[in-house]
Design a protein that fits this description.
Blueprint: H1 2-13, H2 23-38, H3 48-76
Helix pairs in contact: 2-3
Length: 82
C-alpha cells in the first residue's frame, strides 16, 4: 500500500497533468458544488442550465485528471511475466 502511495506521489511530481488540488480536495469541491446546485434558488428555472454545464465540466476535468494519473501509474508499473 505504501508503494502505491509513493508511486502516486512520484507520478504527481513528474507532472502527470495534476492541478494544484489533491484528489481529496477535488472530491470535496465537487460535493460542495453539487450541494449548492441542489439548493440553488434557480433550480427550477432555465438559469440553472449554465450552472449545470459548469458543474459537468468540473466533473469531467476531475475524471480526466484521475484517468491520466492512472494511465501514467499503469505505464510505470513493471510488466509481470506470465
Amino acid at each position: 500500500m505504501a508503494l502505491a502511495a509513493d508511486r502516486e506521489h512520484e507520478t504527481a511530481e513528474r507532472g502527470a497533468r495534476r492541478s494544484s488540488l489533491s484528489d481529496a480536495e477535488d472530491a470535496t469541491a465537487l460535493r460542495i458544488n453539487l450541494t449548492r446546485l441542489r439548493s440553488d434558488p434557480e433550480l427550477r428555472s432555465h438559469r440553472i442550465v449554465a450552472k449545470l454545464a459548469a458543474f459537468e465540466h468540473s466533473v469531467r476535468a476531475v475524471a480526466e485528471r484521475a484517468e491520466e494519473t492512472l494511465r501514467t501509474i499503469d505505464a510505470q508499473q513493471p510488466r509481470s511475466r506470465s
